[in-house]
Structures are given as C-alpha cells and as structure tokens.
Design goal:
- This is RNA polymerase subunit sigma-24.
- With 430 residues, the protein is an all-alpha fold.
- Helix content is 66%, strand content 2%.
- Strands 1-4 form a two-stranded parallel ribbon. A two-stranded antiparallel sheet has the order 2-3.
- The radius of gyration is 23 Å and the shape is globular.
Length: 430
C-alpha cells in the first residue's frame, strides 16, 4: 500500500474497507510507530512491524470486516509481528534484537516531563548526532507516514539520495543507542532548532501535500499544531516555540477557503469571512506575546507576516510595505532562496511585477514548482503570455499535487494574447 491510500478494488476504485485502511494509516501510523518504539526500544523494527500490520489489514479487512477498534487492531498486530521478528533475530545472536525483545517483555514505567509518544519520537529523530535534513526526513517518514518519494520531492532531491539519508539516520539511532525520550531540561536547547524545524515541515507538508488529489493533508496539519502546543507547554518561555504555534494557527485559519469547486483558491481570492476567527485570535495573541519578549526569531517573523494578512479585511487592504519590511528582517535571521522568493512576491505588490521578476530571475530554485508559478504570474501581469505559458508548463511538470496542477493548468489555458501590460493580482497561494 502507499502512504496515503490503498490499491484499487475489483471495480477500479478502492473498497470501503480499503478506504478505511487508508484513513487509519493517515490518522494512526505515526502514533503506532511511536508507541511501538517505546515498547520495543527499536525504531527500525517498530516501523517495519507497523507497515506489515497495514498490509495484513488490507488483506483481511475486506473479507473479515473492519474491527471495532481499527487503531488498536493495527497496534496489536504490529506488536505481535515485531516480537516474532525479534525472536527470530535473537536466536541468531543479534544483540540488538535480544535487547529489544527484553525491552518488549519488561517495558519500563513512564518517565519525563511530557508523556507523549509522538513528541518523544520527534525528539529521538532530532538528536544532535543527526544532520538537520536527516532529522526532518526521518520524522516525516515515521510520524507522517510519507513515502520516500514524497519526502524527496519536498526536499527537491533525487529519491535514491533521500532513501540513503533515511537509512543512515535510522542506523545511527540504532547503533548509537539514542534514547527514546524527551531530553532533560539542560539538553533541550541543543534539540530545539531541529524539533521546531521538524514540526514546521510536518505542518507545511500537510498544508500543501506533495502528492495526491487533495491540496491539504488535514491529519498532518492537526498533528503539527498538537505538537506545537506540547512544545509551548514544555518550553513556555521560548519565544520561537510560541512563534511557531502562532504561525501554524494563522496559516491554518485559511484552510477552509483554500480549495473551491475549480481547485486551489489564491489568497487574494479567498472568502475572508470564512477564515477561522478563533485560530486568528489565538495566533495574533501569541504574536503579541512574542513581541513583548523582544527576542525575534524566524518563526516569530513569519507569524508576524501572517498576522498582517489576517489583519487585512480585503486583499487590497493588505499592508504590503510592512510585509516587505518583515521579509527583510527574515532574510537577516534566516536567509534562503525560498524566503527571497516570497519577498519578491511582496515587492511585486509594492513596486510592480517588473521589480518582482528582477528579484525572482536570479534565484536557484528551478526544481521548485512555486518558483515557476510565481515567475509565470509575474510574466502574465507584464503581458508576456508566451513566456508565462512556458513557466506554467514547468510548474505543472514539477508538482504532483492534483489541486495545484488543476489551478496552474486552468490559469495557463486562460492566458490572454500578449499585450504591453496586464492587470495586477497577488500570486500568493495562501
């Protein structure tokens, strides 16, 4: 089975049981891997056992029926599979298997400041011994259940490169016996950067799914926000944890308006009356808490940018000069080509599409579909329709998300004939 779905049924589409397996996978994969890792003490065996349990579910549920507690069934089946595997390996004098089997038989009591298996899994994956890209990739694999191909697409690297990165990270965790726990208070600062990056990328991967028919994976967005709340609980005086939670809430407040009958709806075209006012109020309150601390960081600045959008009653009322100023600050704190791309979008709203295009053209983001989409829109606004069509084609080829492809295709197909100038419209995707 895939990370998000099930194989087709006899009539060409998935059966009800197969759809149920896919839904349980999306909701429970990360939790099952996290719980089993705690019970067994072996992350690799836990992940393999959970995958096997879902394969068994695909085989049995269509004929036996969906069990009363699907998540419990998956976890029990995975645990039995893992223990059987460990017994076989331990009989061949595998010391790791022996240790894991002993761990499974005599699980220690819960300890630590946060009793949450998935947060422990994030901290395990974010050990300083691992490079940050490996930390993020491994967490997306284990917590989000994404395929290696999807993670490679999100990182803009070839799939074999990502596969090697994930394998090496899991081996390092196993061989170095990195503990499955939230670290002590004095160790938290060394993990914070990686943990925040991982939670943010879990959210962004859910906000715009790298593949599939749906624009959003709501399960990943909800899980990232849940983890963000736990991090604020764990580190209430850490402004970047507050900033990250604020950022996710403000972006998530627009979720219900991002897709319409014809697919993706750009920020400028969204019905702002349908934005989640409770999430906006909470996010803006968190931004104000951050400002009072006077210790700005990248997540706080990004949250402030989203707060500017949330403040505007209409797209035309957006304070784009303030957005540009905030992106200037973000470039100082966390310079990257993607930040420069977003800044160029804001500059185009202040100084016109030609100014934005001049900034975009020098960015090394040709494998990133949003780069081509932004460039296409700026060219469209300048009346350079033939060049815009080529850029839309490049953006379509570079994304596997059906909602984005539909929007880009529709926009390309309605390009006007080349003219000296064209109307202005925000390219922000919301």
């Amino acid at each position: 089975m895939t990370a998000h779905g099930a194989p087709d049924g006899p009539g060409g589409g998935p059966t009800d049981a197969e759809r149920q397996v896919a839904a349980v996978f999306r909701a429970e994969h990360g939790r099952a891997v996290a719980i089993l890792t705690r019970q067994l003490g072996d992350l690799g065996v836990a992940e393999e056992a959970v995958q096997e349990a879902f394969v068994v579910a695909l085989r049995r549920w269509p004929t036996d029926g969906v069990p009363p507690s699907p998540a419990g069934w998956i976890l029990t089946t995975a645990r039995h599979r893992a223990i059987d595997h460990l017994r076989r390996e331990s009989s061949r004098a595998d010391r790791h298997a022996q240790a894991a089997l002993l761990h499974a038989r005599d699980e220690p009591p819960e300890v630590g400041p946060v009793q949450d298996d998935r947060l422990r899994l994030v901290f395990t994956c974010c050990h300083p011994a691992l490079a940050v890209p490996a930390q993020v990739a491994l967490t997306l694999r284990l917590l989000g259940g994404l395929t290696t191909a999807e993670i490679a697409h999100a990182f803009l690297v070839p799939e074999p490169t990502m596969a090697q990165r994930i394998v090496r990270a899991k081996a390092k965790i196993r061989d170095a016996r990195i503990p499955y726990r939230v670290p002590r208070d004095e160790d938290l600062p060394d993990r914070l950067t990686g943990v925040l990056a991982v939670v943010y990328l879990v959210f962004t991967t859910g906000h715009t799914a790298v593949a599939g028919d749906s624009l959003v994976r709501e399960d990943l967005c909800a899980e990232a926000i849940r983890l963000g709340r736990l991090l604020v609980e764990l580190m209430p005086d850490e402004p970047e944890a507050l900033g990250l939670l604020a950022l996710m809430l403000l972006v998530d407040s627009r979720r219900a308006t991002r897709v319409g009958p014809d697919g993706l709806v750009l920020l400028a075209d969204q019905d702002r009356s349908r934005w989640d006012t409770a999430e906006i109020a909470e996010g803006q309150a968190l931004v104000r808490r951050c400002l009072r601390r006077g210790r700005p960081g990248p997540y706080q600045v990004q949250a402030a940018i989203q707060a500017v959008h949330a403040d505007a009653p209409t797209a035309a009322a957006t304070d784009w000069r303030q957005v540009v100023a905030l992106y200037d600050q973000l470039l100082v704190l966390a310079p990257s080509p993607v930040v420069s791309l977003n800044r160029a979008v804001a500059v185009a709203e202040v100084d016109g599409p030609a100014a934005g295009l001049a900034l975009v053209d020098d960015l090394p983001l040709t494998r990133f579909h949003v780069f081509h989409a932004v460039r296409a829109d700026l060219l469209r606004r300048l009346g350079r329709s033939a060049e815009a069509a080529d850029e839309y084609a490049a953006a379509i080829a570079a994304t596997d998300n059906a909602a984005e492809r539909a929007h880009l295709t529709r926009t390309r197909d309605t390009l006007p004939p080349p003219t000296p100038a064209a109307g202005a419209e925000s390219v922000s995707s919301g």
